[in-house]
Amino acid sequence: MAEGTWTDEALRSGKGDTLGRLAYARRAAELIHSTHSFESSAVFGLSGPWGSGKTSLVNMIVEELVTAHSKWEVARFTPWATSDILGLLSEFYASLAEVLPKKKGEQFRRALAVTATVAAPAANLIPIVGGVAAEGVRTAGDALGKSPSWQAAFKKASDELKDLGKPILVVVDDIDRLHGDELTALLKVVRLLGRFDGVQYLLAYDDETLYRSMNASGAVNPHDGSAERYMEKIVQYPLFVPPLLQHQQLSRLNAGLLSISREIAGEGAYEDRLGGLVDCFSSLLTTPRAIDRYVAQLRHHIPLLPPDEVDDGDVHILTLIRVSFPALFSAIPRYKSELISGHTGDIKFGGDSLEYEPFDIDPLLEVVPPQLRGVARRLMVSLFPNIRATGQFSTFASSRRQSVHYGEYFDRYFAMGILDHDVSDATVAAAVEAAIRGDATPLTDLFATSTDEIRGLVLSKGASPANQPSTDVGRIHLAEVLAGVANQLPSDDRGLLTDLDQVFGWTADLLGGIDEDTSPSVIVDVLRKLATQPLRIRAWRRLENSVRRTFLEKLPPWYIAVTKQLVQEAADDLLQHLKQGDAAPTSSGVGYQIHFVLRHDAEGLRSRVHELLDSTDVDLAILASRLVSARSTTGGKPNWQLSPDFDQETFNQLAPPGDDPWYHEPVQKVDLHDLSWVNRRRFAAGRVSSPPAPPAVPEADPPAHAQGD
């Protein structure tokens, strides 16, 4: 198969034969020649499916015939190029007349014109002699009698043709393209009007399509085999396009794929995956045209995206589905969620557990011919492994992140491009690589200019293992850049996994892999690039989990030192916040600080809060106001308001036990949407209880020798 654009051109010569059919063509040519007689006519029928190479084989047969036997003349009759029955007759007689010598064949042309006139009342319009046939037809008709019979006209033409002594082969290709009436007329022409002695016919068609057209025309009964028997009366020598053997299919397919294949460094080739589906390819790509058409589409689609943006194996399989089952391919995007997840989204009740209702793809496969649904299912499972049937283990699915069964990449395979709601993997990788080198601009700008949806993709792709640094220096540089990114992100906590959470998770994975001998100051410097103490605490909380996963037995010294310093700084910041009273910023995230310090040094924080309360710089109302939280519904615009649930448990850990007049103040009606500390302090009044006194410590029993004193 030649490189470049595929045009579906048939072979013009046996020199281009790559399927070993030249020997078959040579034998067919000899059969046509050896059966020729000027006393009879024979019809050869070459049948084969569309795309099997019928026209190429016809051309090779003709080439072999005229090369070995130069007396033969070949007339090409193209029936499907005409628009009506008259045009069909015109094309046939003109094709036959054109191959005859100009002078010696003139008498035959005139006799042929008369035969056409008798065969069809309007045949006097057929240009057989020169450009205008009407007068010539009348003259020839007068010579035979005013109204000759068809037998007389046909015999006259046959005698003239026999006198020429010229063997003629009339080639009629693609007769299965004709509609019912046109096909019936053509077969009548071949069977009756065209059976001149000395003329052989080579018809090329697809049996299945031909019989379907005959059935549709009503000329035969679709169920009694009459179509086959009808053709037996017309075709004396049935020939068949040799089918592709599997090794020929695979050889042609492999040659095409090798011309466009590409590999991604570190990912390996996809040949093993496609090799596991080889029977699917051989079941669907059964003709040279089907194979070449498939490869031509791949040659167009593959370069549309770089190799690191899609999985080429998925492109191959989706393209196979598109050329083989167009309706199935068109339906796939409508079931994106179900195909990726493998379930409908509905909960299935039963047994001791709840699970999702599996997605059944059988209704989706109804657009596929029944005999090919098993093949279609295997291809679909290879693309979307979550839809595999119970007990099915071999799916031959892609293991790459860029596969179609990952939601963030799905749309690329149907648009064959990076869409507006997508971002190139290469763009993200380049920005991360720059950050690893210490250049914060590309990654910072990427976050700053991205929508919320794109920002999530950048985080997901940036945190991919393939993009992570391999050195501590690179980890520190990237973590510092991410700290700057975190400062720009909204601290809205209404989502289950916000962009800020993902940044902190990425940062935690980076710092969690730092060498255990790293100086604590290096980690502290990274954390201090976060704008506020609550942000540092949030990042550190994520890092704690990462460190404990990495260092299972013994925590690194830097972790212990940094934790101690963060606790100290958080406690200092919290006490300063309390001293500011109602003037403290409401968006300070003081709750993070309180719970973080309590978890690491509850006694130390409690002691310092008690000292602050004793100094009268802070009162119980101010302390309680910091434990009145705000909440908002998920989804839509934020609608923050004070939560009715006061954190009494945390208050008990901070406030001293004992009664106080403040606990007996009446409950006040406040505006729940007012999040100021003044309003929170009013809200807390009357809703807070005095912490219980600590349990008494039992006195130790006196020594045994003193019990009698």
From TrEMBL:
Residues 632-642 have a biased composition (Polar residues). Transmembrane segments: none annotated. Residues 632-664, 686-709 are annotated as: Disordered. Residues 23-302 form the KAP NTPase domain. Signal peptide: none annotated. Pfam families: KAP_NTPase. It comes from the Bacteria. Residues 691-701 have a biased composition (Pro residues). Coiled coil: none annotated. This is KAP NTPase domain-containing protein. It comes from Ornithinimicrobium pekingense.
